[in-house]
Amino acid sequence: MQGRVFKRSSTWTYVVDVGVTADGRRKQKSKGGFTTRRAAEAALTEVMSALATGSYMDPAKLSFEQYVLNDWLPAMRATVRPLTWESYDRHCRKYLVPAFGRYPLHGVSVVSINALYGTLLRPEPPTSALSASTIRRIHATLHKALADAVRWQLIARNPAAFADPPRAAKPEMNVWSASDLQDFLVATGDDRLATLWLFMALTGVRRGEALGLRWSDVDLERGRAAIRQTILPIGHRAVVGEPKTARGRRSVALDQHTVEALRAHRKRQLEQRLLVGREFHDKGLIFARPDGEPLNPEYVSRRFQRLVRSLGLPPVRLHDLRIPTPPWPWPQGCRPGSSATGSATAPWRSPRTSTSTQSPTSKPTSPSGSPPSWCRPPLPIHPRMRRRVVASARGRRTHFRGP
């Protein structure tokens, strides 16, 4: 087995013996375009090492499907977050491999890529059309896969870099007014995730960060919460992962009202744990299923959307609760810094804003005129709720609903 490196015009090329033909002549492969001699020698060494171990694959015979499923996706699993890898895998198996699977890796062209984007945007029937933003995410996956193929010296250039994915219109972000947010928190005061909605609205944490919060991460005496982990939706499972960015590991301030709501929530959770008994799986999570297992973030978003529609409020995403809003007029006796039945005892400022507070109003807090549940002491668990908690823990009910 022999190989050599030589200069051709302004670039460097290697040539290596890869076997013999049927009539006994040497079979050689060459690759050029290297800007330096060292780069060509490094590529030659890799090819000769693969030939020696029997793992060499002729790039001309390597198909797109073989490269993506056997080489690229396994390599990406250890380098990206689980949610990112899951999107890579879904894009490849559902869209890219069916379109380019039989192509040789070097045969994927700019024209074929643009044709795929056009088919996805305007398919037959049109009911299965994808949005421009979804196609751009598929394009990002393809661009990454082919860029790695260039870096691994399997192809000379990345055709996805010259493709033209459709332009996605920037979605208009909708944010609730202070009155809308108050109406939602008051109307959902008896929802089993009421404390979660309140916590996200007042702290601005992400959905997965709130669901990954543990009691050991919270100091209720000092009013601080440490973001150390997040819950990711991988398929139909809820998986514990790292925060989205390095700055995601942070400490969040908790106002007095949030602290009081968390204490009441903890008492209710302990009561539910006693009812479930040995079937409770203690993960230490603040916001969890009745059996202690993590809540699936997608389920939480769907529940939020159902509540918003049922209340007739302007449609917003759960993620939009993170957007700071001006201080809102709290119901009489429910403003942070006040007792459950008396007037405010001290001025209060939201940890997300620095503007002055407004005085409480006399707006009704619930159909009965009484304060919402997150302003009242926790009540004993209703008998119907007890049956549903136990049934959920035993797997007979996927999602918990209150009485």
Q: Can you walk me through this structure?
A:
It is a single chain. A three-stranded antiparallel beta sheet has the order 1-2-3, with helices on one face. The protein has a three-stranded antiparallel beta sheet with strand order 4-5-8, with no helix packed on it. Strands 6-7 form a two-stranded antiparallel sheet. The chain has 403 residues and is of the alpha+beta class. The longest helix is centred in the middle third of the chain and has 21 residues, at 256-276. It has helices spanning 37-53, 64-77, 82-100, 110-121, 132-151, 178-187, 194-203, 207-211, 256-276, 297-311, 383-393; strands at 3-8, 11-20, 26-34, 218-219, 224-227, 230-234, 237-241, 250-253. The protein is elongated and about 85 Å long. The model is unreliable at 328-403 (pLDDT under 50). It starts with a strand and ends in a 10-residue tail after the last helix. β4 (218-219) and β5 form a beta hairpin. 38% of the residues lie in helices and 11% in strands.
- Low-pLDDT stretches: 328-403
Numbering strands along the chain, what is their spatial order in the largest sheet? 1-2-3
Radius of gyration: 29 Å
- Describe the main β-sheet briefly: 3 strands, antiparallel
Q: Gap between N and C termini, in Å?
A: 77 Å
Q: Which features does this protein show?
A:
403 residues; alpha+beta; 3-stranded antiparallel beta sheet; 11 helices; 8 strands; elongated; disordered C terminus
